[in-house]
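User: Just a sanity check before I run the rest of the batch. Below are the structure tokens for the first item. I only need the designed sequence back.
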């Protein structure tokens, strides 16, 4: 398969295939006639694996470790479990950060609802953002308390 054919079969872009090839996650052989990269069915299997692993939040670095272990005929399953155990707390923290951001955004929209539009004057770019408090409390937890935690 050529790059575009592998990409189509794997549901990714050709640039993604090229990137994974450069990273050493999938390999290709060179066609001696035209020097095109050619991929076999094993590349498609790996490409699908990479996509599944990405959906679970594994980084390309993680995936490379997993594939290297599998290539050595050693079960990568313990590594996979350990990596997820390490990543899950960071994901939960990121969710909390995004919840807080969503709360700040909602608060900003509420505050700006009736305000007039300002015109930049050389000292100001957007009066809405510039007038918004920088050290705003976490409104995600505030809004949860207001509606009984049912956000």
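Assistant: Here's the designed sequence for the first item:
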């Amino acid at each position: 398969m050529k790059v575009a054919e592998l990409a189509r079969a794997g549901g990714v872009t050709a640039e993604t295939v090229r990137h994974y090839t450069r990273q050493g996650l999938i390999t290709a052989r060179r066609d001696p006639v035209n020097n095109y990269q050619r991929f076999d069915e094993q590349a498609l299997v790996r490409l699908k694996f990479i996509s599944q692993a990405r959906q679970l939040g594994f980084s390309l670095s993680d995936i490379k470790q997993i594939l290297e272990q599998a290539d050595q005929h050693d079960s990568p399953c313990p590594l996979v479990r350990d990596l997820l155990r390490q990543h899950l707390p960071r994901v939960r923290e990121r969710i909390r950060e995004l919840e807080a951001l969503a709360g700040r955004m909602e608060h900003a929209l509420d505050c700006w609802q009736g305000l007039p539009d300002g015109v930049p004057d050389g000292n100001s770019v957007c009066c809405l953002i510039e007038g918004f408090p920088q050290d705003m409390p976490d409104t995600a937890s505030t809004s949860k308390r207001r509606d009984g935690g049912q956000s």
